[in-house]
Amino acid sequence: MSSRELLGTFGAFDYYVRFVKDGSKYISFQLEKSNSKQNNVSLTKHDGSALIILDSVRSGIGRNEDNDFYSIVIAPILKELNKNHNYIKTTAHDSVEQFARSLNPSQDYEIWIISGDTTISEFCNHLPSKPTIRNSLRILPLPMGTGNAWATSLGFDSPITALRNHLNDQLKPKDFPLYKAILPNGYSIIFFMIFSLGFHANLLHACEDPKYARMGTERFKMAAQTILDNYGLDTNVTLNGLQKSYSYFALINTPNLEATYKPSPRSNPLEKELRLLG
Fold first, then answer.
1. Under 8 Å CB-to-CB from 3, ≥6 apart: which residues?
2. Strand order in the sheet with 137-143
3. Residue 234 burial (CB count, 10 A)
4. How many whole angstroms separate alpha carbon 124 and alpha carbon 118?
5. Contact 273/267 with Cβ under 8 angstroms?
6. Which regions span the lipid bilayer (predicted)?
7. Which of 233, 182, 173 is nearest to 203 (CA)?
8. Which end of the chain is more exposed for a tag (fewer CB within 10 A), N or C?
9. Domain limits of the chain?
10. 228 pLDDT band (50/70/90 cuts)?
């Protein structure tokens, strides 16, 4: 059964998005419009930022002609608003990395990322490390992945919600913290949401197996059973001079890891504070 949500009033029309979901998976979108009786609303901001739409086309269940959120919803709306933008869709495993490295440190950017959490993590990890000029970089997550923990923790329960709130000027830019983990072998990684070892880290790795690619959240259940049956999970962690062995260890600053799974309810993704789950 389909549902419908108001996106906003742009030009002379009220725009609605009709969509069909199967669990957490978006099966289809359809943009509908009708003559508006309200005052016109338009996105008229011109602050010099380059608007880029980054679409990780394999996130979630992937894109097809029925659920292509950019082509069906975003592109027609930006055309109505006469808003210039560049659209970039991933074509290879390193597309996000190459895109992040290509950004000009002296240019201001507003980037709408149609994806899940992994794409945002890849993007943050491959930005120019030492920009010569401090530039403005604003990110709007449009959740179309499997978990979407960051977007959910920010209050965006769907790509429609995030886009509607932004287009109707209900969002204000806010800083969010980034963290750097350095492992004993010298490898380092930037994270903004969670850093984990043991069960959780192995679960994320196991879910990358192609056989789970289109299973949605069900893949976590299947992969978890494989890990419990076959993996060694004890992880020795020393914290403030105390050493303990954990099967599950995570540093986290988001309350949600799934829309209905909230392991750290006191966390806030916009505050620079990590909580330890063990």
1. 18, 19, 20, 21
2. 86-89, 50-55, 109-115, 137-143
3. 8
4. 10
5. yes
6. 186-205
7. 233
8. N
9. 42-167, 179-277
10. confident
Instruction: Report the distance separating Cα 71 and Cα 9, nearest Å.
Output: 19
Token duo for residue 192: 């903004």
Tens-place pLDDT, residues 49-88? 899 999 999 998 899 999 999 999 999 999 999 999 999 9
Query: Average pLDDT in the 213-230 region?
Result: 81
What are the C-alpha distances in Å from 151 to residues 186, 243, 263? 30, 34, 16
Q: Which of 136, 88, 135 is nearest to 115 (CA)?
A: 88
Q: Which residues make Cβ contacts (< 8 Å) with residue 169, sequence separation at least 6?
A: none
Q: Is the CB of residue 53 less than 8 Å from the CB of residue 70?
A: yes
What does the pLDDT average to over 102-125? 93
What is 42-167's CATH topology? Rossmann fold (3.40.50)
Report which of 250, 24, 277, 257 is spatially closest to residue 153, judged by C-alpha positions.
257
Looking at residue 130, what is its pLDDT? 64
Q: Nearest CA to 250 among 198, 176, 180?
A: 198
In degrees, rounded to 5, the angle at the alpha carbon of residue 188 between the alpha carbons of residues 226 and 130 is 140
Q: How many CB atoms lie within 10 A of CB 53?
A: 21
Burial class (CB in 10 A: 0-12, 13-18, 19+), 40: exposed
Round the average pLDDT of the chain to a whole number and report it.
88
- pLDDT of 155-207, one tens digit each? 999 999 999 999 999 999 999 999 999 888 899 999 999 998 888 788 878 88
Q: Which residues contact 193 (CB under 8 A, 6 or more apart)?
A: 117, 121, 149, 150, 153, 252, 253, 254, 269
